[in-house]
Amino acid sequence: MSDVDFYFDFSSPYGYFAAERIDGLAQRCGVRVNWKPYLIGVVFKQTGQTPLVDQPIRGDYFRRDMERCAKLQGTPFKLPAKFPYAATAPSRAFYWINSFDPALAKRFAHDIYRGYFADGLDMSNQETVIASATRHDINADDLRAAMTDPKWKQHLRDVINEAIERGAFGSPFFFYEDEPFFGNDRMDQLEQWIKSRP
Question: Name one GO molecular function term (predicted).
């Protein structure tokens, strides 16, 4: 089974839309998806980009586009009051959970995304992240310790550096056999590419 590396930021609406679709793509294409949360704010410092909603003219378009994308794919969505945010806490939590249960980590990721973009929860707050995790019988004290553990801090930094070295610059960003695809709107193209490979 071949792999798709799926880089995303938990504060990215397009990452959220992609997360809602990626399982279907994996099933149709017979690929394994490696979920890799990272922080695009770090990438922005290297590329000179700013969050979409902060950009003149483009910001108004993308606010409209986010609503349209959500409606067309049937995904609950409301732009949160605190947007964007530095998704450090959920990203570290994800990698700790993923280290012992990847399927649970993926369910946790869906909860974080839906909690933020559908329910308006403040996922920059560590305790909100922990509350999302405890719904899956994850021990709150263990997770709280993991999010401040140097091991998981470094792991997140390593993934960010890996993504930058590979050429990722936004969310979602996909690699299939080192072929890059950027954006929720490239997922159909990604699927066609996978199916066209020998």
Answer: glutathione peroxidase activity
Strand, helix or coil for residue 133: helix
Token pair, residue 148, equals: 């401040």
- Quick one: which H or E segment has residue 5? strand 3-8
Q: Which residue has the tokens 């979602």?
A: 172
| Confidence band of 171 (pLDDT split at 50, 70, 90) | very high
Q: Active-site residue numbers?
A: 12
Provide the domain limits for residue 98. Answer: 4-196
Range 148-172 burial, b when 16+ CB lie within 10 A, else e: eeeebeebbeebbeebeeeebbbbb
3-state secondary structure of 15: helix
Distances in Å between the alpha carbon of 84 and those of 30, 48, 52, 110, 147? Answer: 33, 17, 10, 17, 20
Cα–Cα distance for residue pair 198/191, rounded to 1 Å: 14
Q: Kindly report the number of other CB atoms within 10 A of residue 67's CB atom.
A: 14
Residue 149: CATH number of its domain:
3.40.30.10
Q: What is the pTM of this model?
A: 0.95
> CA 123 to CA 127: how far, in whole Å?
8
Tell whether omega for the bond before 37 is within 30 degrees of 0, i.e. cis. no
Please provide the size of the chain in residues: 198
Region 167-189: what's the mean pLDDT?
Answer: 97
pLDDT at 109: 98
